Amino acid sequence: MNENLFTPFTIPMMLGIPITTLIIMFPTMLFPTPNQLINNRMITIQQWLTKLTSKQLMNTHNPKGQTWSLMFISLFLFITSTNLLGMLPHSFTPTAQLSMNLGMAIPLWAGTVVMGFRNKTKISLAHLLPLGTPTFLIPMLVMIETISLFIQPLALAVRLTANITAGHLLLHLIGSATLALVNISLFTALITFTILTLLTILEFAVTLIQAYVFTLLVSLYLQDNT
Amino acid sequence: MASVIPRKEEKLLDVKIGELPSWILTQDFTPNGIAGAFQRGYYQYYNKYVSVKKGSFTGLSTVLAAYMLFNYCCSYKEFEHEWPRKYH
Fold first, then answer.
1. Is the model more confident about A130 or about A41?
2. Could you report the per-residue pLDDT of A173-200, keeping only the tens digit for each?
3. Residues in A touching B78 (Cβ below 8 Å)
4. Dist CA A87 CA A4 (whole Å)
5. 20 to 30 A Cα–Cα from A102, which one of A90, A136, A154, A212?
6. Which structural domain, as residue segments, surrounds residue A75?
């Protein structure tokens, strides 16, 4: 049982060679480049969704922050497509690996922080102290705010990893419970199957929500520092 | 039977099995050549099934089904022993 539970999260191998890079590059094949004014249906749908998302994400930024739109949209598309592809049976989800999410979170967060410190040093430093704190609390609060600042990339990465991994694990567990219960008691198996259906719907929602949350938080960090 | 079009430009699905070794010898296996082969294959599928006037969901779902099959094959060893059998 111990070994079987986490085998979906092992690195996929083909003839002994890890094919993780190929699997990470696979979603790019599903987003073709639009090269005409009016394209085929698949591209039109993707364009419409992209415009909807980008307006929602970027309308709170000033022009300087909106230069990051391409970064945010590609991040959102990558996380969404990778998570959704991971919902297929037997597929490998790269975003369930902490290493990859750290690789996405740390550079983006560091980019926003460094930009803030370079362009608006005083304001960035002032963010470390909330308004209206009593004077004798200031040193401790600055330390706490610094720690919370450095926790941000870790939280971004771990949030995504934990959500995706936990969701997949739950689906596996409840699915195998349903199968095991079929021989014992059909009614309980039906209840478990209903739970499985609801969980699957939730999982699909989680894939989209997590992508959105990741991107939104990075954009928030950007707003603070633009 | 000699083919009518030059051997190099023939698509893989049009090559007859007896001519397969000679077809393989005419293909170039440099990185550029392999990248070109993948690009050609991608656009062959894309232009035939996706970028048509009334494309539907089947263009995309065939790709997803093939991806699922590929992952099934790659992880066959791991769930081989999970089948409901009397003797494992």
1. A41
2. 888 888 888 888 888 888 888 888 888 8
3. 7, 10
4. 18
5. A90
6. 4-225
Give the mean pLDDT of chain A: 86
| DSSP for A77-104, written as a single string | HHHHHHHHHHTSTT---GGGSHHHHHHH
**Residue in A4, A29, A90 closest to B72 by CB:** A90
B68 contacts B76 by C-beta, under 8 angstroms:
no
Closest among A81, A100, A93 to A169, alpha carbons compared: A93
Does B15 reach chain A within 8 Å, measured CB to CB?
no
In this structure, are residues A53 and A76 in contact, taking their beta carbons and an 8 Å threshold?
A: yes
Count other Cβ atoms within 10 Å, centred on residue A179. 13
Residue that has been written with the tokens 């497509």 in this structure? A81
Q: Which residues of B touch A14 (CB under 8 A)?
A: 74
Interface mutation vs chain B, best among A41, A47, A176, most B CBs within 10 Å: A41
Is B55 an interface residue toward A (CB < 8 Å)? yes
ipTM over 0.95: no
Q: Which residue, among A203, A201, A175, A200, has the nearest Cα to A189 in the 3D structure?
A: A175
Could you give the number of structural domains in chain A? Answer: 1
Please, what sign has the CA dihedral across residues A169, A173, A174, A179? positive
Tokens of A201: 């719907």
